[in-house]
Amino acid sequence: MPRLLLENVTKVYDREVYAAKDISFAVEPEEFTVLVGPSGCGKTTTLRLIAGLEELTSGDIYIDGQRVNDVSPKDRDVAMVFQNYALYPHMSVYDNMAFGLQVRKYQKQEIKERVVATAETLGILSLLERKPRQLSGGQRQRVALGRSIVRNPRLFLFDEPLSNLDAKMRVQMRAELARLHKKIHATIIYVTHDQVEAMTLGQKIIVLKDGEVQQVADPMQLYKDPRNKFVAGFIGSPPMNFIGGTIVKKNRTIVFHSRDLNLILNKRSEKMADHKLSIGIRPTDFSIARGSQIEIVVDVIEPMGTELYVHGRTGSTMLSARVPEDAAPQVGKSFILKIDPGKIYFFDEKTEQKIQ
DSSP strand E in 212-291: where? Predict the structure, then answer.
């Protein structure tokens, strides 16, 4: 399997609109890498640049050490799975999967062996004679995957392939994709706007915003050590709570002061005294047992089985928290949340970079 390398890749459309700006990252052989970010951040453009479907404005792309800037899409030996599956409606499943090999003049027997073996791997062997209209969404997705796998390409490029499926099917297909990756040892670059999908599938995650790379890391590092406020707020569900204010020292006590609350911090925060910043608190880091106290008025309660998501406000500041089912918050009533000061994140107000 090859190594993919992007160096300062930039794509500019008319009127200085940057779809991708100085994007640099590497994808190691057999690695499952995910490009994640909100709509319009440059994920799909980056994928299309790798495939050769878009022309670079500047920068370089290397596949297995070969610079492929001027190599045509058909000669890059990459397979792309699209959001809409892009199956030929008049062809059977077998013919859809075999078509790419037929174009490349493979022998009929080899085509049959590859298609059958791939269909067996994906659990669609019994569907080979059906037309796409006779398939469910999950089955069509498997056919689209099979059409790519049967070619045995150097790289697999996935452009939000699960977004048309319902929630239950997406969970099922995520698990199948993870198993498939381990089975065929493929090098995969996967695009999604769903951070849960990114966290569960990716060995490496590249977070994009406005065409620029915000952070490259494995899922747990991304969650525990976000580089900036955008990454911290994008990764994690429910998203991180942010509160703007100032750290002040009152006698020997370090306090975060905002318009709506005063939160006692630990001594490590003293070096940030008189510094305007935002604090970040993950909903999952709140406690009802110990820590610095925040009182909220509960607006909404979301039962999630053995736990509850509580959404409320202190003054005009909105907060979300995960609490145990037996915490018994009530809508319209006050509720006490507690936070270990050691679990609070700090972000510079101007640069939005995390303060270590």
Answer: 212-217, 241-250, 253-257, 262-264, 276-281, 286-287
Query: How far apart are the C-alpha atoms of 279 and 266, rounded to whole Å?
Result: 14
pLDDT digits (tens, 9 = 90+) for 122-172: 888 999 999 999 998 888 888 988 888 888 888 999 998 888 778 887 888
Tokens of 325: 């089912």
For the record, the structure tokens of 200 come out as 């569960």
Are 55 and 212 in contact, with CB atoms under 8 Å apart?
no
Instruction: DSSP for 150-169, please give it.
Output: TT--SEEEEESTTTTS-HHH
**Helix ranges (DSSP H) in 185-282:** 195-201, 219-224, 229-234
Q: Using CA atoms, how far apart are residues 289 and 209, in angstroms rounded to an integer?
A: 37
Q: How many CB atoms lie within 10 A of CB 213?
A: 21
DSSP H helices, 185-278, are 195-201, 219-224, 229-234
Label residue 272 by pLDDT band (50, 70, 90).
Answer: confident
- Mean pLDDT, rounded, of the chain: 91
Judged by DSSP in three states, 88 sits in coil
300 SS3 class: strand
**Predicted pLDDT at 1:** 65
Cβ distance 42 to 191 under 8 Å? Answer: no
Kindly list the distances between the CA atom of residue 109 and the CA atoms of 112, 211, 229, in Å, as whole numbers in the listed order. 5, 45, 55
* Residues 6 or more apart whose Cβ sits within 8 Å of residue 62: 3, 4, 5, 6, 7, 68
- Alpha carbon distance 93, 259 (integer Å): 62
The pLDDT value recorded for residue 328 is 86
Strands 286-287 and 334-339: antiparallel
What amino acid occupies position 45?
T
Q: What is the pTM of this model?
A: 0.88
Tokens of 343: 């679990």
Enumerate residues 6+ apart whose C-beta is below 8 A from 282.
236, 240, 241, 343
Cβ-contact 321, 298 below 8 angstroms: no
- CA end-to-end span of the chain, whole Å? 38
